[in-house]
Amino acid sequence: MIVKICVGSSCHLKGSYDIIEAMKKIIAEHGAENKVELRASFCLGNCKNGVTLTADKPDERMLHNVSPDNVREVFEREILPYLE
Amino acid sequence: MTEYYLESGYTSLNKKNEELCGDKVESIYQDGKMTFVLADGMGSGVKANILATLTSKILCTMVSNEIDMTDCIETILGSLPVCKERGVAYSTFTVVHVDTFGKGCLIEFDNPQAILMRDGKCLDLPRTESKILGKTVYNTELNLRENDVIVMFSDGVIHAGIGMNLNFGWDREEVKEHLECIISPTMSARCVACELATACNQLYHNLPGDDTTVAALKLRKNMRADLMVGLPVNKESDSVCVANFLSHDGKKIVCGGTSSQIVARYLGTEVSASLDFPDPRVPPIGFINGIDLVTEGVLTLRRLLELSEAYLSPKDLTPKYFTAKDGASELAQILLEDATIIDFYIGQGVNEAHNGLPIDITMKLKLVESIAHNLKKLGKHVTLHYV
Fold it and tell me: What's the CA gap between B215 and B194, in Å, rounded?
């Protein structure tokens, strides 16, 4: 699965950097490095609902309002179940 | 004959506990000629500062107007206030007056002898002595080549370390050796001056015993950079604007997420963003095939403004070359160090992505204009195109 994290101006201010670092750690904890490909993206056009992530499985979708506080929860709810 | 760009820069260290520097650098660029003066006033503090300011200003104005050296020196002698204690009026100086083809002259009075750096080697200039109004003045005819740097300095440089690490100060031959070690051919004049002044400051253990100034003048090739930031007001003019932006040779830079999408679309490719954060304060850079540098907008530019302020300050000793890999440092290396001709394409359109967010278009414009202002102060040819 490809997960993109928005690093546009607005999302950067809302904590993209911390989310990327946290996400790398959580992926490692689950030993899922080969199943999730983490990428950055410039502005995804959803600044109001940032930080915005996209995931391409089970279908292309956006995950909104991700923060350093809820990143683990989002991963376990929205990403982990769809890993092959 | 090739026409070059004349780049100048200097760094000054104040004598410890002094508010004012007794060395002064002045420059004027007019009619394709640069006049660059370094004056060192007698004593230190206010008195020295006044002497140096008067001397540099008078010389710079007169020499740039091609007035004979005898008249210049006469004017200075007649204008400088006489020191009550010492009964003399005195300021040393070095003047360079050179055109964009590298031809001109160098005149020295009582400052340490200037150094010419050519192909990584330090050379002495073949100067001839003459007497003007009883003063010994040295004159050198200049015929500079591409990437030649003239390094001028006040006696604070050769006195560096006296009574500390070095008994008799920093020997001129050792200064030359040091320059040959630290200066690379890609460094700007500003960078060269800062590197040498930093070495002096270290020899002084951060407490200079004398005002210390290094001024450098470099003859170099012009290098162009075009920078696009923000969206055009009319969506229909997107492609015209991008075509314009891409129409020149030189480095291409795009700042901002939405702007980079417009450019990528025009080029029939996509933007990808890097996941690396070399500096957590600055969002990651991106990549577009065919564009030299792609960065985020406002936050990166704000950091660039900070870097440009430090770069401009003659007292700032942070190195003037940028090796960090964050977007702002990469921008700084291209715009502050490398480029000499810079065109900004500033879109004033409102970014829908920023609706309701504290990212204001006026703030962004202000930011770009402040950066452009600083680049102009550095002597670069800057043009702003509003689209």
Answer: 9
Domain match, B196 and B138 both: yes
Please write the tens of the pLDDT for every residue from B82-118.
Answer: 777 777 778 999 999 999 999 999 999 999 999 999 9
Q: Are residues B270 and B214 in the same domain?
A: no
What is the number of other CB atoms lying within 10 angstroms of the CB of residue B52?
30
Give how far Cα B32 sits from Cα of A60, B102, B214, B387, Å.
Answer: 59, 11, 24, 31
For residue B192, the enclosing domain spans: 5-220
pLDDT at A9: 87
3-state secondary structure B8-45: EEEEEECCCCCCCCCEEEEEEEECCEEEEEEEEECCCH
Using one digit for the tens of pLDDT, what is the confidence trace for B288-306? 999 999 999 899 999 999 9
Contact flag A7-B296 (C-beta cutoff 8 Å): yes
Size of interface A-B (CB pairs under 8 A): 59
Which of B229, B295, B354, B360 to probe the A interface (max A CBs under 10 A)? Answer: B354
Please say whether the beta carbons of B346 and B297 come within 8 A.
no
Contact A45, A10 (CB under 8 A): no
Whose structure tokens read 């002898």? B113
At the fourth CATH level, the homologous superfamily of domain A2-82 is: Glutaredoxin (3.40.30.10)
B194 and B155 in a common domain: yes
Structure tokens at B71: 């008249």
Residue A12 to residue B283, Cβ atoms within 8 A? yes
Return the ∠ at Cα B318 (arms to B123 and B321), rounded to 5°: 60
ipTM exceeding 0.85, yes/no: no
Across the interface, of A9, A46, A47, the residue whose CB is closest to B297 is A9
Distance from CA of B373 to the nearest CA of A (A): 24
Statement to judge: residues B139 and B184 lie in one domain? yes
Gap between the Cα atoms of B105 and B108, Å rounded:
10
Closest Cα in chain A to B364: A9
The minimum CA-CA distance between B297 and chain A, rounded to whole Å, is 7
Q: Which residue of B has its CA nearest to A12?
A: B283
Total structural domains within chain B:
2
Asked whether B39 and B59 are in contact (CB, 8 A), the reply is yes
- Give φ, ψ of B28 to 5 degrees: -135, 135
Whole-model pTM: value is: 0.89
Q: Which residues of B touch A (CB under 8 A)?
A: 257-258, 260-261, 271-275, 277, 280, 283-284, 286, 296-299, 352-357, 359
Q: What is the DSSP letter of B101?
A: T
